[in-house]
Amino acid sequence: MARLAVATCVNPIGCPLWDVLFLQPFHENVIAGIREVDSATPVWWEPQVVDDGGAGNSVGLLSPIADPAANQGISFHVYALAALFGSTAVRLLRPERSVTPLNEALVFQQQEAAAARNSSALLITEFGASDSTDEIERVAGLADEHMVSWHYWAYAGWGDPTGSSSEGLFADDLNRPQSLKQPKADALVRPYPQAVAGTPRSFAFDPATKRFTMSYQADAGVAPTTVVFVPSRGTTAGITPRRSKVRRP
């Protein structure tokens, strides 16, 4: 019955009744327990696993998720679950070229809607699990587009019985760092803003040209300095307005 119930959630709408009647109360109960001993630390809650491929997150549909500290966020995953909305025939037609990118974009749209409804922050706590640099760069690009921070899955396999050899950053976990999968590392190590002295408007990185751009509305009262991580030396930087300064570490 459990498998049958999950199967009915594999659609763009998801399972609203389950989210509202069971998942949200569960999260709220846990949050309330945490707040009894910690009134400040951010709490991250996750939607259903089928949301990883674009199913709807209905938490907060009737009322926003309750957090006495008003300091919570959605921990979500982004995966190439082409089978989520495709038939066997579609999968045989190389869905990674069509359905998969659509699913990945849909995940961001669904979780952004839930975040707005619940006044939640967003954090991708899992994506990748693949040696495909195209997939890594595609999802990281979407994360930039939506200005969402991320964690990659996974650093190493550690003999995970549920995983595969393509998930980690090393061809041999016992031979690190010599067995580093360099193309994957190159795809993952990319510029990003670590701190912004104002309100971010947009940022993006083009892996082909190695060009990173960012726009933000400056606010002297937010932070003293904007910090952008750059993975290698020998780079050039430009900034406007002209009175601004670039300082290298």
Summarize the structure in words.
The chain has helices at residues 2-8, 16-35, 88-92, 99-118, 133-145, 182-188, and strands at residues 43-45, 72-78, 121-127, 149-150, 192-195, 198-206, 211-218, 227-229. Helix 5 links the parallel strand 3 and strand 4 (149-150). Helix 4 packs parallel to helix 5 and helix 5 (133-145) runs parallel beside helix 6. The protein has 249 residues and is of the alpha/beta class. The protein has six helices and eight strands; from the N terminus they run ααββααβαβαββββ. 29% of the residues lie in helices and 17% in strands. The strands form three sheets. It has a four-stranded parallel β-sheet with strand order 1-2-3-4.
Rounded Rg:
20 Å
Give the helices and strands as they follow along the chain.
HHEEHHEHEHEEEE
Counting helices, strands and paired strands, the structural category is: alpha/beta
Mean pLDDT: 87
Spatial gap, N to C terminus: 57 Å
**Largest pleated sheet:** 4 strands, parallel
Q: What best-fitting shape do the alpha-carbon axes yield?
A: globular
In percent terms, what proportion of residues is strand?
Answer: 15-25%
Count of helical segments? 6
Identify low-pLDDT runs. Answer: 83-97
- Tally of extended strands? 8
